[in-house]
Amino acid sequence: MKVLVDTSVWSEVLRRKKNIDLTVANTLSKLIKNNEIIIIGPIKQEILSGIKDTKQFENLKTILRAFRGYSIKEIEYEKAVEISNLCRKFGIQGSNADFLICSIAIENNFQIYSLDKDFNNFSNVIPIQLFTP
Predict the structure, then answer these.
(1) pTM of this structure
(2) Model confidence over 117-128: pLDDT tens digits?
(3) I need a labelling partner for 128 at 20 to 30 A (CA). Which of 5, 66, 100, 119 fits?
């Protein structure tokens, strides 16, 4: 099983300074140990965005480099737009990055691990598999 881990999970574990959700942290740790993690460049970019402290930025960058990034295919970008358009027909909004995550997950049969409830809405319209700890 491969799991595409969304920014919300990484941020919970890597960026939060207090009151980290231990269930999320333990689940992420288990996925890492089992080599089940998939990460894409846009997620790495989101994780690193807005970090003002240079030391924290460099530490996170080093941590994230340990995970080989998935190479996004042209067709997956196109599929992301199709998914976006379909969801909008049903009144469901999302970010470009979220629709790209959905596209990649569908095309590769990956599960999506996210704390973002938007993915629950997407799953009512498109065939994504949500990871449940």
Answers:
(1) 0.94
(2) 999 999 999 999
(3) 66
